[in-house]
Design goal:
The chain is α+β, with helices and mostly antiparallel strands. It has three helices and eleven strands.
């Protein structure tokens, strides 16, 4: 039996906390130098790969049957565009991130897609980006566990795909898919998080949204 659902302000507060963690995980100041005795140590170094994750290539306003999509585009601050369902909520955070949320339901966790962008040292490689993210997530989350980690390319840019779970005190097991992209002196992190029982309910639409993502 689930606890009482959280109010929208509390949900947004939790999402912004997640956004802050995403940013800290990549920024040099957020690097955790001490060794962690956790699953975070068990990943393998990344190496170049041509693995393709998504295959959506439509250019019109619709992506799936009976689902119509709008286009979010911010060239100046975020340098990106993405398609999203018409009934999803969008929140732009301080010109550094976009949060997309489906219509609220009556559970304890607001499923969301977050796209964050920030400056990095151009010398940082994709291995270091994934390593810093994993170490910080492992230090922050309860029961942090890596399901998969592999190198990919997004629009020809080096990237990584990280799937992991952790335990939320209010919502139980949370599944998260992270995609980190290096674009010169910028890093983009696309993060989808959902309760374990809701993860696959949204996954198909999330994959199509991510595949519509473009750097502009």
């Amino acid at each position: 039996m689930k606890a009482l659902s959280l109010s929208l302000p509390i949900r947004l507060s939790l999402i912004f906390s997640l956004l802050l963690l995403i940013i800290i995980s990549i920024c040099p100041a957020g690097f955790v130098s001490s060794d962690l005795q956790s699953t975070a140590q068990q990943h393998l170094p990344l190496s170049p790969s041509s693995t393709k994750v998504f295959s959506f290539n439509n250019t019109d306003g619709s992506i799936t049957n009976n689902t119509f999509f709008s286009t979010f585009q911010n060239i100046n601050a975020l340098g990106m565009m993405i398609k999203y369902p018409n009934n999803w909520k969008t929140v732009q955070a301080d010109n550094s991130a976009l949060i997309l949320m489906p219509p609220l339901d009556r559970d304890n966790f607001s499923e969301n897609l977050i796209i964050a962008v920030f400056g990095i040292n151009n010398s940082i490689n994709i291995n270091q980006l994934s390593d810093r993210a994993i170490k910080n997530y492992g230090a922050y989350y309860n029961d942090f566990y890596i399901l998969n980690l592999k190198p990919i390319f997004i629009q020809g840019k080096p990237a990584y795909l990280l799937l992991y779970t952790y335990t939320s005190p209010t919502a139980g097991e949370i599944f998260t898919m992270n995609i980190g992209i290096k674009d010169g002196s910028k890093a983009y992190v696309i993060s989808y998080s959902a309760e374990q029982q809701e993860y696959h309910s949204y996954l198909s639409i999330i994959e199509k949204m991510i595949d519509s993502f473009r750097l502009v």
